[in-house]
Here is the input.
Amino acid sequence: MLRVRVIPCLDVARGRVVKGTRFVDLTDEGDPPELAERYAAEGADEIVFLDIDAAPDGRGTLLEVVERTARRAFVPLTVGGGVRSVTEMRDVLRAGADKVSFNTAAVRDPALVRRCARRFGSQAVVVAIDARRRAGPDDPGAGWEVVVKGGREATGLDALAWAERAVAAGAGELLVTSIDRDGTGAGFDTQLLRAITDRVPVPVIASGGASGPDDFVAAVRDGGASAVLAASIFHRRRHSIAAVKAAMAVAGIPVRFATAGVA
Amino acid sequence: MTRSGVIRSGVTRVAVVDYGAGNLVSIEQALTAAGADVVMARGPQAFSGADALVVPGVGAAAPAMSRLRRRGLDEPIRAWIADGRPLLGICLGLQLLFEGSDEDGADTLGVLPGRTIRLEDAPRLPHIGWNQVERRRAHPLFEGIDDAADFYFVHSYAAAPGPGADALTLAETTHGARFVSAIARGPLAGVQFHPERSGRDGLRLLANFVGLAAAGAAAPAPGAMLRPAMAG
Here is the structure.
């Protein structure tokens, strides 16, 4: 049976892992390869590596850091941040990534998703959707809007419609982040997740708002997520990957328990 | 880089077929960790001096086949297999061993009978993540690995051995319907999952393959290349 993945996210700026609340007030959390190796040993099913410097500053992805990370962690690596062309995607894959995640670049040029999927296969193309609720929680019918540049720029795109378009263009997976919840510890936006997982046939990774193991359970049970991603709760050792998986297993969610030894 | 003329050491040399398909860093790193001396084969001249080939790959069959042909790698791979030498196909590299792919209608290497088909009744596709690999027969490739151990998959299509070719099947996995997740025939093997991304068990499988290749290199036995009568 396919396991639900637990994915630590390494937000990287200037070659270091950082974490802030709603993409601001960034604090240093460590060296990317070192953290990746630790997480792999602790049972991470995959590692997502977001160069959060790249999109706002227009910088290229740090291929050298990707390669050092890929050489130390024998688990799948997804890399996002600043990839804008088929050639740049090829370079990131050759540096050791298994999948590449597109956010702003896909919104600006949806055909990029199609070109990359045709060249490398849909399974290597992830579209990251940062979504913000259009109105307060009292008005669930208002839906969600796609935002880019770490939440600083609204696009006017409806998040659910964009999710369907991205998959039609060739995205093999969606990484859905609730910008309202990101960094707040208020739990995943399970309504957003459910609205998207009901509309697309591809796996959806839940992101934004995890504070404890129960949130991971809710993202899967209520949101329909195939994988759950978090950053700060793992970096700061507030909860271990094993503790999160144990809670998921108790709730009847299939998870992988890594065998001991070098992962 | 060619290695012809180099005095053979005791280290098993594995050539990874590099036809521009995705992430080769992890396969190189994992094979090295598994004890192999790894060379990247961008052309067939790099096959000389190798004890075994690894054919990696992700994505669709048609562009992969055209790149293999452009680099003059397709016929040498067929010849390598016909000579009964060790080869491991990974993911698309496994699928290419069969006759063709339903994904884009491509004709593939045609070394094994059967086609690559879309996963049936899958709850979601692509099939991405760790899933159980259930052994159908004992094989040294899985030595030291628990039956139904988890390996990492990322694909929407899988090879389906043709009628009468059930003997190829080493292991199966369920995502919706069951599909073949590992095959072997003599020194030829293939896995649909990514051992280079499957943690300790993945490294063990690669080490087992390197060990089999070393044993084959130490005692070359043309008779070991069994070709059971198979349809197709």
In short: Residues 84 and 105 of chain A are 6 Å apart (CA to CA). DSSP finds eleven helices and twelve strands in chain A. The interface with chain B takes residues 1-5, 40, 45-46, 67, 70-71, 74-77, 90, 93-99, 118-124, 172-173, 201-203, 226-227, 256, 258-259, 261-263 of chain A (CB under 8 Å).
